[in-house]
TrEMBL record:
This is Acetoin catabolism protein X. InterPro entries: AcoX-like, ATP-NAD_kinase_N, Diacylglycerol_kinase_cat_dom, NAD/diacylglycerol_kinase_sf. It holds the Pfam family DAGK_cat. Signal peptide: none annotated. GO terms for molecular function: kinase activity. The lineage of its organism: Bacteria, Pseudomonadati, Caldisericota/Cryosericota group, Caldisericota, Caldisericia. Residues 67-151 form the DAGKc domain.
Length: 332
């Protein structure tokens, strides 16, 4: 194409798909060279169709930099985001804050945790659309999809006038406890474990309560506990919860790839929008999207609520269909 089109952000997490669950289960490993390959395929498509500019998080492995170096004759202007890098998840949050003022859409390469970090950096009153590609562990938020398809979907999005029709708002969980406020895209798990430690939650016996935005029967992780009681689809206008104990109905569920666990459900139900669930908890930790993030040192009341106005996500299939309909991929 002769005319340059659009500006795209890329946030790739070199740590996604490598946590302790690789040691206690049979989860797949996405090494960083495969992430370079994913980005290379995206950039090759962008270069072909004339994407004007990209902004990228300059991660510790140099995923985007290495992908750029592999493409001969690339015409895309590539800009590393200038932030104070810590090479922790806060980099994804800070990169998203900068990108939302500069790009049309942000590609996120990682798992639920990476996407959560990105969403924390967005203005959710008018969020920048995301194109999430799964390379994590328990991936309920990003899709496992070929990156070439993602790139073509983004080309369709950039060329379409009615862009809002190609995106959808996802649900979001918010938690408040003491003076801490945070969010989760998929699930919140309240644990008796007293320290954050390795972050990833894999001991089902420590879990006291689970809150979810989605609970598909095909999910892996704690959301699947609720799926076996109250299946919740992504487009359902509600979430769900389960209170666990040592007694009650016992559910067998996949806590991680290849690992089956047991949970006793004392109580479960639907979580409606903006109606907080109050939970009294003793000392312990709270996991957000599979990783322990909050330490609770004393008896406290946690408030968990659901909102339907979470991040905006590109509908890959619909975008491609629109591109075909609009003859974006047809030459005279």
């Amino acid at each position: 194409m002769s005319n340059m089109i659009g500006k795209v952000g890329i946030i790739a997490n070199p740590q996604s798909g490598k946590d302790i669950r690789r040691l206690v289960s049979k989860a797949s490993v996405f090494d960083n060279e495969e992430k370079v390959n994913i980005v290379e395929r995206i950039l090759s498509v962008f270069n072909y169709f004339g994407v004007e500019e990209i902004y990228y998080m300059d991660d510790s492995y140099g995923i985007v930099r290495k992908a750029l170096a592999r493409i001969k004759g690339i015409n895309i202007k590539a800009n590393p985001i200038e932030i104070d890098y810590t090479f922790d998840e806060i980099d994804s949050t800070n990169a998203a804050k900068v990108m939302q003022e500069k790009v049309d859409i942000i590609i996120v390469i990682g798992g639920d945790g990476t996407n959560r970090a990105v969403v924390k950096g967005l203005n959710l009153d008018d969020p920048m659309p995301l194109a999430p590609i799964s390379t994590g562990t328990n991936n309920a938020f990003p899709q496992m999809i070929e990156s070439t398809t993602v790139a073509l979907s983004i080309i369709s999005y950039l060329l379409t006038e009615e862009k809002e029709e190609l995106t959808k708002r996802e649900k979001l969980l918010r938690i408040k406890i003491n003076d801490i406020s945070d969010l989760a895209l998929v699930d919140i798990a309240v644990s008796k474990e007293q320290f954050i430690g390795s972050k990833a939650v894999w001991n089902e016996k420590s879990i006291k309560a689970i809150f979810v935005t989605v609970a598909e029967v095909t999910n892996i992780g704690f959301s699947s506990v609720i799926a076996y009681e109250h299946p919740i689809r992504r487009n359902d206008p509600y979430g769900g919860f389960a209170i666990l104990s040592d007694t009650g109905e016992k559910i067998l569920f996949p806590i991680a790839p290849g690992k089956i666990a047991k949970a006793n459900i004392k109580e479960s139900g639907i979580l409606h929008e903006n109606i907080p669930y109050k939970l009294l908890m003793e000392r312990g930790t709270i996991a957000l999207d599979g990783e322990r993030k909050i330490e609770v040192y004393k008896e406290s009341v946690a408030s968990v609520s659901l909102t339907l106005n979470g991040p905006k996500v590109l509908d890959f299939k619909r975008a491609l269909e629109e591109g075909i309909k609009g003859k974006f991929f047809t030459q005279a």
